[in-house]
Amino acid sequence: MKHGVAASIDRPSAPLAIISGGSSGIGLCAARILGAKGYRIALLARDQQRLAQARAALEADGIEVVTCILDVRDAEACRAVVETLTFRHGPPLWVVASAGIVEPGFFLEQGESATRDQMETNFLGTANLVRAAVPSMLAAGRGHVAMVASAAGLFGVAGYAGYCASKFAVRGFAEALRIELSASGVSVTVAVPPDTDTPQLAYERPLRPAAIAPFAGSGRPLPPEVVAAHLIRTAERGGFLSAPTAQLAAIARLQGVASSLLARMQMRLLSRHKR
Known about the structure:
Order of helices and strands: EEHEHEHEHEHEHHHEH
Largest sheet: 8 strands, mixed
Distance between the termini: 46 Å
Low-confidence stretches: none
CATH class: Alpha Beta
């Protein structure tokens, strides 16, 4: 088993979808949706036991699954795992970067490791997976890259400085990558969900600073199935920002007016340069 990939060489009878953070939450729900559409699912996650449980649950629904033990912070491991998957199953048509962590706490009360760990997992982990997977998608001339950011990537939230920074980074990365890939046939979509009913939220809530809890926890968490379905539907329709509530969609629209104008200007410049 090379680099934690549990599968034999098998040229594709079904297109491949690679999903990080795929053992639970939004990633697992995305796997179930794409699996039901006929994709072979490659689940990437760090915890072998949770991966095995997720695989069993998906296979019980008749979904083809391979599992890959992977820490997305390791760029070389990402490259090796994606290379092996691509060799065995062909280039992915979907890459869903859903792996993420959160460490609530006021910035000056946290050690530097909390900021570093969130940036390395949430942003650099996303970038590592995308860097590994997109070249084969470009060669095929098609595919969807879907990233999971957060509502905390739209506006700052006290007690979440490191998390906000990492999710702002994911959103900015997605905006820039969308421009760079605009003529390639590979689309880019980023989700900005509010609190979502996942194991990560269950871990986070007891650690949330009490002073900010009335704001940070003011709404009912969305089911992960709703967030995943909205992300995939947005990507399939060629949309960029997946904001699964009316309130977040309104906030995103206000911010999006300026960024869309700048994006179109850059796309025109790139188009002229390539002629």
